[in-house]
Specification:
Blueprint (H helix, E strand, L loop, with lengths): L1 H10 L28 E11 L5 E3 L6 E3 L2 E7 L2 E6 L3 E6 L2 E6 L3 E3 L3 E3 L5 E2 L8 E6 L5 E5 L4 E5 L4 E6 L9 E2 L8 E6 L5 E5 L4 E5 L4 E6 L19 E6 L5 E5 L4 E5 L5 E5 L18 E6 L5 E5 L4 E5 L6 E6 L3 H6 L12 E2 L8 E6 L5 E5 L4 E8 L1
Antiparallel strand pairs: 1-28, 1-31, 2-3, 4-5, 5-6, 6-7, 8-9, 10-14, 11-12, 12-13, 13-14, 15-19, 16-17, 17-18, 18-19, 20-21, 21-22, 22-23, 24-25, 25-26, 26-27, 29-30, 30-31
């Protein structure tokens, strides 16, 4: 339970209680091409791709083994990568994980201490990697949240800083002249434009291929106003996804809602009434700290509903929200409304599987959905019968 509380604190940190220049809106998103396939979610099943045995560390002051949690997951070709909460990036291979970059320092009774350094492999330092996404050409971009920077890592493990001064603040500008405040989620277009959810600035930012950082939407004040981009407000936005038409979908965590930024710049709420757990139409559906979004071949939005320990599905056309898997029995969820759902660690059919604090989603090149199941220190895999 202490482990779960620490992860909840990390995932929910600082939540309140209650026009981008040259952002290339017509550029298509960087997504696996087999998204054109269809799948039958009714026959979906959940398995464990990597468990706590692959994410363990030995405390420096003892021989105690500590399980660390994946916060984000990415796919490059046939390789699965995970960003761990000990501030490292690893590659999953067979029954083990191999370090790509980062170095942790364990502090007794406090966990792993992050840092900042560009460099290769273990010489590089991070402080809270909350998102990994692939860039055109195969490099990776990382949201180094508590360093307030966006980092880049090459195929051979060399890490550089793309944008951010390292100071928590807000400023548009070139590369290290720009400022972020706990950047959290990322989405990437095929032309290399990077979209960033700047969580504690309550804004969506973008980084052009030349390094210019601008603001796409959000005033900087937290709130929940649907309006033109420069007047709209967010509340600690997290996960991002982008479709073929240039629409950006936002897991607006502090508002417990799914929002969208349309190509014309207007921000609208798709679903999410308030914190809670309820399946139903857009006007009554509820989420609890949605942290990641991913798009299906048919254009539906899958949501990592973190504090509900569930993967939800939102249809933008109808506005209906259902539970794909997790959160307890799906039939019971549809018939009741509650503050939180059931959490656990169980593989099986979609209506049997259980999760604990899912924090990120990513489709692999075979059309399966990978889930960073943070509370279970695992990467889970949802396979759809095609």
């Amino acid at each position: 339970m202490n482990r779960q509380l620490r992860l909840i604190a990390l995932l929910a940190i600082c939540l309140p209680l209650t026009g981008c220049y040259d952002c290339h809106p017509s550029a298509p998103p960087l997504t696996p091409r087999l998204y054109q396939k269809t799948f039958d979610e009714a026959l979906a099943s959940v398995s464990t791709l990597a468990d706590a045995r692959m994410f363990s560390r030995t405390a420096s002051e003892s021989t105690t083994t500590i399980a660390v949690s994946p916060m984000s997951v990415a796919v490059t070709g046939n390789q699965v990568l995970a960003a761990l909460d000990d501030h490292t990036l690893v590659r999953l291979q067979a029954d083990t994980s191999t370090l790509i970059a980062g170095k942790n320092s364990h502090v007794p009774y406090h966990g792993f201490e992050g840092g900042f350094a560009d460099g290769s492999g273990a010489d590089a330092r991070f402080n809270g990697i909350t998102a990994i996404r692939r860039l055109p050409g195969g490099d990776l971009v990382l949201a180094d949240s508590f360093n307030h920077r966006i980092r880049r890592i090459t195929a051979d493990g060399h890490v550089t800083t793309l944008a951010g001064s390292g100071k928590a603040g807000f400023a548009d500008g070139m590369k290290d002249q720009a400022e972020f405040n706990q950047p959290w989620g990322l989405a990437v277009a095929d032309d290399g434009t990077i979209f960033v959810s700047d969580s504690l600035n309550h804004r969506i930012r973008c980084i052009a291929p030349d390094g210019l950082v601008t603001t796409l939407a959000g005033t900087g004040q937290w709130g929940r106003m649907d309006a033109e981009a420069i007047h709209a407000t967010f509340n600690e936005p997290r996960g991002l996804a982008r479709d073929d038409h240039g629409t950006i979908y936002v897991a607006d965590a502090g508002n417990h809602a799914i929002r969208m930024i349309q190509p014309d710049g207007r921000v609208a709420t798709l679903a999410g009434l308030s914190a809670g757990y309820h399946d139903g139409p857009r006007g009554s559906a509820k989420f609890s700290l949605p942290s990641a979004v991913a798009l299906t071949p048919s254009g539906d939005i899958l949501v990592a509903d973190t504090l509900n320990h569930a993967i939800r599905k939102l249809s933008p056309r109808s506005g209906a929200v259902t539970t794909l898997t997790g959160g307890g029995n799906a039939k019971q969820v549809s018939e009741r409304e509650s503050d939180f759902s059931t959490w656990g660690n169980r593989d099986g059919k979609r209506n049997e599987a259980l999760f604990q604090l899912p924090s990120d989603l990513m489709f692999d090149d075979e059309g399966s959905l990978l889930v960073a199941d943070s509370g279970n220190q695992a990467i889970r895999k949802i396979t759809f019968e095609r």
